[in-house]
Amino acid sequence: MDELERRIREGNPRPIRRETPLSPRAEQELATLLATPAAESPARALRTRPRYAISLLSGMVAALVVGVLIVTGNIIPDPPASATGLPLLEETPVDGTINEVIDRLIMSARKNPAEKSSSTHRISYEAWSANITVGEDASVDVFVQPQEVERVWSDDLSGHIVMRAGAVTMGVQPEGDSPFEPGDIIDDGKFGPGEYPVLFPEEPPSTASELRAYIAGVLGLTDSSTAGDWFKAVQDLRTDWPLTPAQNVATLELISALPGVTAAAVTDRVGRHGIALQTETRGGGKFRDLLIFDTVTGLLNSAEDVYLGGLDDINLPPMTVLNYTAWKAVE
Fold first, then answer.
1. Distant-in-sequence contacts of 96-102, Cβ < 8 A, 24+ apart
2. Which helix (H) or strand (E) holds 120?
3. Are 93 and 149 part of one and the same domain?
4. Which residue range forms the structural domain that includes residue 258?
5. Shared domain check, 231 and 97
6. 331 falls in which pLDDT band (50, 70, 90)?
7. From the centroid of its chain, how far is CA 155?
8. Would 102 disulfide with which of 195, 256, 294, 296, CB 3.0-4.6 Å?
């Protein structure tokens, strides 16, 4: 099972009804996924009731999951509106125009010392999701248990991915279930040369124009892609690469050229103060995408996606937090 499939099967997002057709790329990826039966891990086999999650996946994977759930037809009761996601981050205004705010972040990022090149890449992050457990009596329990992910890979595309359970941050684990305790290993995957799953196998460039072309070449983004599409692409890139200060500056310069971006001061979900650059352009204005940069270092700390409502085929309350990822420094 490769990493893309593992992330889909482990996440098992809450099923939603959809009437619009999948893109040709999604149909091809869906067919490939469904052609391979899923092997149930011993840890997951211990669970006594079905569990679903509003999972923290990349934009590409999330779109594919929708198609998987249409085909499998898994339908669960609607979870309580108050428990389907995380509370929104509290925002305070920041001084200056959006370009002035980004320029300050760029100045901060440029003060970081240049990192030495290495053939080994280490990424550590915390991902949050709303876990939905449905009982035999159709009762619904919802809680949020972060996942700690460590990814190490080399230029020959060999590597290691370990996912551990964090402490529950919202709700209560249901009685009678067999949940993961904090620190439990959820998944431990080792990959030989050429096997490690990455969207971006090549080193990202360090100028905005080159970075834009690099991302577009991998994900197929165009001049008509929304700012939200580019925000999602940056999330995917950061999950694959521990961006250097120069690459981080290029990312900020890329964002500064996008239309429809605003800024606010926030504290992310692991307590770090930062500036949230955000846009509500993806999906016809139905989603808010946030990239949160550290106030002092100017480096990308975390990302978040919020469903704003308005889509007939997504049966979730408006302002539902769908996706949160906090990247961490690796010693």
1. 98/256, 98/261, 98/262, 98/263, 98/277, 99/256, 101/263, 101/275, 101/277, 102/252, 102/253, 102/255, 102/256, 102/263, 102/277
2. strand 120-128
3. no
4. 88-117+202-328
5. yes
6. low
7. 23
8. 256
Domain-embedded: residue 196: no
- With left for phi above 0 and alpha for psi between -120 and 50, is residue 195 left, alpha or beta? alpha
Last residue of a domain, one of 168, 191, 214: 191
Tell me the residue type at 161: I
CB contact at 8 A, 287 and 303: no
- Cβ–Cβ contacts within 10 Å for residue 20, how many? 9
Whether the predicted pLDDT of 146 surpasses 70: yes
| Mean pLDDT computed over 217-240 | 96
Q: What is the pLDDT of residue 199?
A: 94
> What is the rounded distance in angstroms from the CA atom of residue 146 to the CA atom of residue 168?
7
DSSP string across 284-302: TTTEEEEEEEETTT--EEE
Say if residue 220 is in the same domain as residue 253: yes
So what's the pLDDT on residue 139?
62
- Tell me: pLDDT of 42 over 70: no
Number of domains making up the chain: 2
* 263 neighbors 94 (Cβ within 8 angstroms): yes
Whether 197 is covered by a domain: the verdict is: no
Among 191, 213, 228, give the residue marking a domain's end. Answer: 191
pLDDT reading at 15 higher than 90: no
Q: What value does the mean pLDDT take over residues 70-89?
A: 49
Asked if residue 144 lies in contact with residue 279, where contact means CB atoms within 8 angstroms, the answer is no
Assigned domain for 108 exists: yes
Cβ neighbors of 129 (< 8 A, separation 6 or more) are: 11, 53, 54, 55, 56, 144, 145, 147
**Contact by Cβ (8 Å): 66, 29:** no
Residues 298 and 268 in one domain: yes
What is the sign of the dihedral through the CA atoms of 79, 85, 90 and 94? negative
Nearest of 162, 127, 140 to residue 55 by alpha carbon: 127
Looking at the structure, do residues 171 and 210 belong to the same domain, yes or no?
Answer: no
Helix (H) or strand (E) holding 240: helix 227-240
Residue 185 lies in a domain: yes
